[in-house]
């Protein structure tokens, strides 16, 4: 099956899909995006993701490019046309094309791109069974990380630096020495007494949808959740650590900056939460 991408009203084969050379997403990173998990042919937490998309658009002064029902129809079409049963949907909305000018165009039309990709469940389970390593690095990003923009160069640099050290994710550390979040995930630790700790939400981090759903799941299981920052050294000494994102759901962290976390293997609480996560999530037929 040839892959199909949605670009501005058209479903195109990859080699035929085009975005304008002066698209503001390309020129200025003037665009926002969402990543939604596809699980068993269903969209996971689509309502929360589309709520966040609308918020991100609002924060950069844009209106939704189409109704939510239309967007869900497009997403469903892309998922089905690509035969994605387990995988991801990427949805990007830019302010559209226009002569390269910092001023926002007054009559611009947004560019909408929807891509769906398969993700092997067995490869994911094998990764989760081993857990990942983390390296920490300075948070060099801007001060509005709560907006999910495509301005992802700092994340790319961090993830490549992490990969060069054999790590699966980077955790950013702010000027006070506190972990903000992962390059493309939220960061969590489990304290000695079994409480879950993740940084509180503000403009320095993205309010992860997986984070929000996991909070509900953990609360339903009677776990204590504390929203506060932690340092890399507290994380290294924690009982467990893990990350959350639409691409990883709950992924155990087994080492930070070369030091093992806990027993140096995936922890029981992370494992339990990974298994129960989808029971607390919203499923919508794609
Ligand atoms: N990234 N923090 C950052 C900086 C992220 O980029 C992401 C997600 C998250 C977790 O958010 P959520 O749980 O809604 O996926 C936190 C996506 C998966 C990506 O860019 O691929």
What does this structure look like?
- The protein has about 290 residues and is an alpha+beta fold.
- It has helices at about 25-30, 45-60, 70-80, 120-130, 155-165, 210-220, 230-235, 270-275, and strands spanning about 5, 10-15, 30-40, 40-45, 85-95, 110-120, 130-140, 170-175, 180, 185-190, 195-200, 225, 240-245, 250-255, 260, 285.
- The strands form 2 sheets. Strands 7, 8, 9, 10, 11, 12, 13, 14 and 15 form a 9-stranded mixed sheet that branches.
- The longest helix is centred in the first third of the chain and has 14 residues, at about 45-60.
- The chain is globular.
- The two termini are about 20 Å apart.
- The model has no long low-confidence stretch (mean pLDDT about 95).
- The structure holds N-(5'-phosphopyridoxyl)-D-alanine (PDD).
- The site of N-(5'-phosphopyridoxyl)-D-alanine (PDD) has 14 residues, from helix 6 and strand 13.
